[in-house]
Structures
1.
Amino acid sequence: MRRIVVLGSTGSIGRQTLDIVRAFPDEFDVVALAAGNNVELLLEQVAEFQPRYIWCNSPPVPLPKGTAMMSMEEMAVLPGVDQVMVALMGAVGLSPTLEALKSGKQVALSNKEPIVMAGAALKAAEAEHGGVILPVDSEPSAIWQCLQGEDNHIRRLMITASGGPFRRTPLEDLESVTPEQALQHPTWRMGDKITIDSATLMNKAFEVIESHWLFSVPWEDIAVVVHPQSTIHSMVEFDDGSVKAQMGPPSMRLPIQYALFYPQRFANAEIPRLDIGVPWSLDFEPLEPERFPCFDLAVSAGQMGGTAPTVLSAADEVAVAAFLQGKIGFTGIYRVVEQVLTEHDVQSHPDLDAITAADQWASARASEIAGLPAN
Ligand SMILES: NC(=O)c1ccc[n+]([C@@H]2O[C@H](COP(=O)([O-])OP(=O)(O)OC[C@H]3O[C@@H](n4cnc5c(N)ncnc54)[C@H](OP(=O)(O)O)[C@@H]3O)[C@@H](O)[C@H]2O)c1
């Protein structure tokens, strides 16, 4: 039995993680569940999965029988726990992820912001303390799956992007797109923040940064190609010219289950299958930089390193929230992030305190620019 902790259990990835647990009830012991504000759903999950520890932003009164409140950092290091699923959204996942790695745990990491903002620190913790990051995000998971059994002769990573809902929208109309339109992703159903990041392609740049750190591949050897069907989740080209692609339906249950059971693969009726009994095609096209300015901005911040990607991630989190609240337009997301990055004095080799300080400064500055109250 695998003893697991799920941080962010009420979100899109968290709920799908518990769907996998539900499909294999004899394989998992859910030791702890953490959520933010959705106490009602957390309580339903507690009744079903009977964790011993819970976290949410305001504790339910009374606490469900047999449970105690515990911080996410404490959950991440619980003795006897085999795997910590970090399905949180944004920077809040950094500290529990780091703690889990420092205590030598397997971390199934869907929460991409921590690795964007502090990739070097997470990799150092992994190397020093024997913890391991298992990618859950579908593109890094695809690369990870392609690398199984290989001797690491990687020529290039090719990350696929659906292009989001505005791949064909006239450029002059982008300024006026609404949150409702931006939340209509053509192929994936996800939480709000990542859906907006997918529409700006900020999310794709985050995956480039993630892949650089996870697979130690130089920036110039990571390419992105638009693939509207989202059937190929990413590809790896090897030194001999051979290319391996990982394909599957656009369902996060597949990469979640792969990380939970790694390296085993089990049938699960809840995971849809590719239908090759109907005509189908795989299309590819180059990315249009003028349509997706966030992409180049974010990759440059990743390449600059130090506190630049921390500031990128923090400013983007605020800018997306401001867009969803109607404070700025869709193209304003780029402008807010660009201004905060421009104003920031990058620190080259930040320790955790410097990363935290950069994160807080960027959140406050982005809030000021976007007209949101500071946290
Ligand atoms: N969804 C996908 O298909 C997908 C695919 C690839 C990668 N990812 C990545 O996976 C991560 C999660 O994405 P998601 O779409 O599942 O997000 P989501 O639906 O917004 O869920 C986020 C989860 O984090 C919890 N949370 C947020 N702030 C918190 C806080 N301060 N303290 C404790 N819990 C907090 C939320 O709790 P409440 O809801 O209870 O407030 C919720 O359980 C993101 O980094 C995303 O980029 C997602």
2.
Amino acid sequence: MKSLSIFSFIFALLSVIMGATVRITGSGLGCPDWPLCHGRLIPPADFYAWIEWLHRFTVLFSTVFVSILCIKGFLFNRKLVFLLPVTLIVVQIFLGALTVITEIHPIIAVLHTVVAVLYLGIIAHLGSGFVFAKKSPLDSEENLMLRLSLAGILFSVITGSVVARSGSSYASDEIPLVTLFAFGSDLVYFQLIQAIHRIIAYLTFILLLVLSYKLIRKSDLKLFGILISFVATFQICLGLLNIYTGFTDLVRVGHIIVAFIIASTLSSLFTITEQ
Ligand code: HEM
């Protein structure tokens, strides 16, 4: 089960990385049909078709590994939670097809990103039980910090995806905060969407720093504490760099991937400290 959990997580993360690359490179319609690509199993020599195809390819592998993990996990533990990733795969494939059919409708695209972070989080949560040894339990305050941080990351992902899909990315080039225009100006609503994302992100960052400070003081959770404080700081820097660099592809893809890595790390922490 250990190697199956690791492969499931790696391919699920790869499918998210390819998904982010599809979005950033504008390859969402690289394959205008589904499930074939330009009527073929292997796409023609076209950059956008290959990016979209590689996304589908990593999704296929992650689906196979995760389905085996869930069936074995369910037979092993008899816990219904093991059926959740398979359910999310079905929802995600349906949303993926709808994204093509609706030519990337913003609401479908936001839902697709949100289900992706839930999917990766639950795989990290379930797989960690087979990969890592149990660590010392968290006290009630640390537990609260962990749950609030998880909620904060989820809302940062939702609001970030709304920023990207609503065309609010360019609404303000100020950092670290957004100065809102007067209400009634066309831009103020886009600015507000971005301001909400940043405020939720900064509050989540503070939570993550407090949580990692508490973890660093525990000998068997020190590494988790250092990792969380490092990736959280890096994510804030990527958000600021997004604005500062005018949205280079690498920073945009990095910003999405690090958000998913934070969510997975917190989900794993949840499992290994659960008693
Ligand atoms: C905990 C910290 C943060 C998390 C988890 C986070 C997460 C995300 C996610 C998941 C997206 C959506 C990407 C997509 O669907 O394409 C996003 C977009 C965005 N975020 Fe953040 N973010 C954080 C902090 C910040 C900060 C501090 C800033 C700015 C100062 C920022 C600015 C943006 C912008 C401008 C976008 C739109 C990017 C685009 O159009 O590609 N974020 N964020």
